[in-house]
């Protein structure tokens, strides 16, 4: 983010220095405060980059895809300044062609720096060096969860140190160090300049070199449990590794204070009011299109009500624009599929761009949902999922949301396994939820809408 902000600022300063005579003659407003515009554009460009996913460290996209994201970010920045900022501060307005060239230069330079950084590994020296103690079933989760290079952008994994207490060795492609390394741990850490030790034995009791770990910790090496490591690097909680004492002693899972609950509700109502004011034409047009497709002749409803499980397990009726045939569930409740022949023609577009979720603004007004939180599930499925997935019921400790951390990181789910994967992200959100995290999720949801990643 700092790099992109610096690029925007430098391009702006260069442009203003090169055209100093122009500003003095035609836009005297910039004579004394010329630096305000480059700082403002660079800052907004950072926000729009965030909204199109450019700061997602796990982003897996081609160079063409990244360039497209840079252009979309630039277009959003241009639109905000041209349609909003320059209408409020008319005396500071730039000619559209000058503003377009300015922002295009920022977008191209941002992509170029990113391309060079990725190709030449310009920032590889910033990676922390990590070693894992344990090479059994528990440690193998790291290999399974972080197989790709993009999953390891923040660290270099030096290897796994096996322990006598490990269960069956499941590591396939990792560097397993000699077993005697554990007896010379401090020397190994020092010689290999290790920054972080991850504790991942299958059995802790009597297997860890506590004195050596203590000395490493005092020497400045980070010692971290595998659950914390996976949470930090992947943005999810490894449900299958959780043990009660970790939940009890770890940070997060904060209590619901009544002041915070009231503040959350007021913020959600405020946001819902703004979105409703901005999208009411879309809501009217969508209602008309649904009615024209199969409501006029077939008597299909425009809105669709469905029972969902809310906070503390309370049931409520969720509102959606109907995107499926009227008889879609004549045979009972079914998981929605990626390719679903029950979806209407207009329904495909509604689901892709999340337009079908707009009526849920009224659920927000009623206090049944928030803008951010785990997506509410149907009670028929919840009964099954609670039996199949450990800790599943804990996702109901917060209000369900229109969007959530799981929707950003695991956009499609239609089975028990998919629900397990989404639960890992939901628990991460519940553990770390804050206003800043909510704002991050809201901004990044724009990426889902812009690039049609919804369903």
TrEMBL record:
Key words of the record: Membrane, Transferase, Transmembrane, Transmembrane helix
An example Gene Ontology CC term for this record: membrane
Source organism superkingdom: Bacteria
One Pfam assignment: CoA_binding_3
Family, similarity comment: Belongs to the bacterial sugar transferase family.
SUPFAM superfamilies, sorted: NAD(P)-binding Rossmann-fold domains (SSF51735)
Transmembrane segments: 34-54, 66-90, 96-117, 265-292
Domain Bacterial sugar transferase: residue ranges: 266-450
Gene3D superfamilies xrefs: NAD(P)-binding Rossmann-like Domain
Subcellular location, principal: membrane
Record has Membrane as a keyword: yes
Cellular compartment(s): Membrane
Listed InterPro entries: Bact_transf, EPS_sugar_tfrase, NAD(P)-bd_dom_sf, Sugar_tfrase_EpsB_2
Topological category with respect to the lipid bilayer: Multi-pass membrane protein
GO molecular function list: phosphotransferase activity, for other substituted phosphate groups
Protein name stated in the entry: TIGR03013 family PEP-CTERM/XrtA system glycosyltransferase
